[in-house]
Design goal:
This protein has five helices and four strands. With about 240 residues, the chain is mainly alpha-helical.
Length: about 240
């Protein structure tokens, strides 16, 4: 004759629920990782506003997993201390279970790391390359524009200085320096000797004579503009 049936108790339900926590935590981690990986690959940012919640959910899942692992470890320790049946067998099986669990874990981790690294690298490479190209084009434009303005200002100033007495050159250069964009103005003789100079930068008080090749290039009314490095920037040297 069968004995009386036992009704499920509240503690049994709680134990069953606790036993299912690791599985639920693992599912939450996998779903979160898949969603983040898909979002990173598609580069649409649809999960950007949910990232704090996803991060909190993943952290909670990891905490639950760690809590269950610690709880099971403490339970096994107490069972070993009480010499309960099966405790020593569970202890012997534990290293083998870890050995079986590590290879797929390392495989999944390596695949996910490589996938995310390649996706993020390709995402950044396109944008960095485009940004560098745009910055280089902008830099060329700025330098070319500064060269055009330097040529025009030097040509205009040279026309105003024609026939001016050498004793008046210093004052005229100071006046032109205040009205224009130049950092330094200088007048040289045909042989390269400095006649007059003005500067608004202490580092440019002593202008150097132009090379002979540049002097020959501008004879007969020509103009030469050449960028020159200056500290952490570039100066446009215009010779007329």
């Amino acid at each position: 004759m069968d004995g009386p049936l036992r009704r499920p108790t509240l503690s049994g339900s709680l134990r069953a629920l606790a036993a299912g926590v690791p599985a639920l935590a693992l599912v939450a981690l996998l779903v979160t990782a898949l969603l983040l990986a898909g979002d990173a690959e598609q580069d649409v940012g649809r999960l950007q506003r949910f990232s704090p919640w996803l991060f909190a959910g993943a952290s909670l899942a990891v905490a639950l997993l760690l809590g269950v692992i610690v709880r099971r470890g403490l339970t096994l320790r107490s069972q070993l201390a009480r010499r309960e049946p099966g405790a020593r067998l569970a202890l012997r099986l534990l290293p083998w279970l870890l050995l079986l669990a590590l290879p797929p874990l390392i495989l999944v981790y390596g695949f996910a790391l490589k996938f995310l690294t390649s996706s993020i690298d390709s995402w950044f490479n396109v944008r960095i390359e485009q940004a560098l190209d745009d910055a280089l084009a902008l830099g060329h434009f700025v330098i070319d524009d500064a060269g055009v303005r330097a040529r025009a200002e030097a040509t205009s100033l040279a026309a105003r200085l024609e026939g001016v007495d050498a004793t008046e050159l210093d004052s005229l250069l100071e006046q032109a320096l205040g009205n224009g964009e130049a950092a330094q103005l200088a007048v040289f003789a045909v042989d390269g000797t400095l006649v007059a100079a003005a500067s608004n930068d202490p580092r440019l008080l002593l202008p150097s004579a132009p090379p002979d090749a540049d002097l020959l290039a501008v004879q007969g009314g020509g103009a030469l503009v050449r960028p020159q490095p200056f500290d952490d920037g570039v100066l446009q040297a215009a010779l007329v």
